[in-house]
UniProtKB/TrEMBL annotation:
<dbReference type="GO" id="GO:0016787">
    <property type="term" value="F:hydrolase activity"/>
</dbReference>
<keyword id="KW-0378">Hydrolase</keyword>
<dbReference type="InterPro" id="IPR006311">
    <property type="entry name" value="TAT_signal"/>
</dbReference>
<comment type="similarity">
    <text>Belongs to the mycobacterial A85 antigen family.</text>
</comment>
<keyword id="KW-0808">Transferase</keyword>
<protein>
    <recommendedName>
        <fullName>Acyl-CoA:diacylglycerol acyltransferase</fullName>
        <ecNumber>2.3.1.122</ecNumber>
        <ecNumber>2.3.1.20</ecNumber>
    </recommendedName>
</protein>
<keyword id="KW-0012">Acyltransferase</keyword>
<dbReference type="InterPro" id="IPR050583">
    <property type="entry name" value="Mycobacterial_A85_antigen"/>
</dbReference>
<dbReference type="Pfam" id="PF00756">
    <property type="entry name" value="Esterase"/>
</dbReference>
<dbReference type="InterPro" id="IPR029058">
    <property type="entry name" value="AB_hydrolase_fold"/>
</dbReference>
<dbReference type="InterPro" id="IPR000801">
    <property type="entry name" value="Esterase-like"/>
</dbReference>
């Protein structure tokens, strides 16, 4: 039950607020194929976990940012899954983008998981570096673990997904491929088509993953693509899956290089193609083409977070 339900309020009142004060997430434990090997729950808002999982050949980390009133309110909260870009990790939004400040006073849980230096939020076609099944880790293990261990709305209107660059692609992919999971999706300089720009994004994913993630393996197959996998993961080929969702898009207009494999012009081109397809079938979106290259824009990240809070079920 949620805190705003009358019977819940009566229970809390009669118990003298004891239930509301209980740190219910402090007992977060193993489950869903995850085993906690390191954790820190000392910070009142930012809780850290590191997991052992058969899905990944090393122990990925996750930051869970709690609302200011989580420990005493007794409320149930919506959740934003916030995905980092290439060559980044689970601490990036805390270390570089002031995610604590941007969410201060907002009743929203933010989950920031590792996604690999070039994992592309996918289960790769091949790996020479051990398992790197990031999609399985996030969707089959981490998401149900979060909902079992924190007071969250485990429903469509209780979840959003957003990300930067590679993470923006991951957000678009997860929102479409797992249609009933997320009511809001956002891509900050995230490419929106694997086949657009003459397949530049698929080549980008394959080259970057081979170089820094999979020891010569690849996300989508080299030299020949696994065409079924590309189609299944391609946001622009799943346009109808964005209907009834909040869609938020950001792309820069300067051709800044990205990791030596592509540039912001590719992101812009694929987002424009994606938006044209949304417009063609009458799916609304909030999109922004802004000056500059490939980086997170604080003002638009703040606008995105405010939009997530407005769209999702209220705590």
């Amino acid at each position: 039950m949620t805190a705003h339900h009358p019977s819940r309020r009566n229970i809390l009142k009669s118990a003298g607020g004891v239930l509301a004060a209980a740190p219910t997430a402090a007992a977060a434990g193993d489950g869903f194929g995850l085993h906690i090997v390191d954790r820190n729950e000392n910070d009142p808002r930012m809780w850290y976990y590191r997991f052992r999982t058969d899905a990944i050949g090393w122990d990925p980390g996750v930051n869970v940012l709690l609302p200011d009133d989580y420990h005493w309110s007794g409320r149930t909260y919506p959740v934003l899954y916030l995905l980092h870009g290439g060559l980044e990790d689970f601490i990036t939004f805390d270390a570089h983008h002031d995610i604590r400040g941007l969410t201060a006073g907002k009743r929203l849980i933010v989950v920031m998981p590792d996604g690999g230096r070039a994992g592309w939020y996918s289960n790769p076609v091949s790996s020479n570096a051990g398992p790197r099944n990031w999609e399985h880790f996030h969707m089959a293990q981490l998401l149900p673990w979060v909902e079992a261990n924190f007071r969250t709305y485990a429903e469509y209107d209780g979840r959003a997904v957003s990300g930067f660059s590679m993470g923006g692609f991951g957000a678009l992919k997860y929102a479409a491929k797992y249609y009933g999971h997320f009511a809001s999706v956002s891509a900050h300089s995230g490419p929106a088509s694997l086949r657009g720009a003459n397949g530049a994004v698929t080549h980008w994913a394959n080259l970057s993953s081979a170089a820094v993630e999979l020891n010569g393996g690849s996300v989508y197959g080299m030299p020949f693509w696994d065409e079924a996998r590309v189609s299944a993961d391609n946001p622009i080929q799943r346009i109808e899956s964005y209907r009834h969702k909040r869609v938020f898009l950001v792309a820069g207009t300067s051709p800044e290089d990205i990791q030596g494999y592509a540039n912001e012009s590719v992101v812009l081109e694929t987002q424009r193609e994606f938006k044209a397809n949304l417009d063609r079938v009458g799916i609304p979106h909030d999109s922004h083409e802004v000056s500059g290259g490939h980086y997170v824009r604080r003002d638009l990240l703040e606008r995105d977070i405010n939009g997530v809070v407005a769209r999702l079920r209220k705590a």
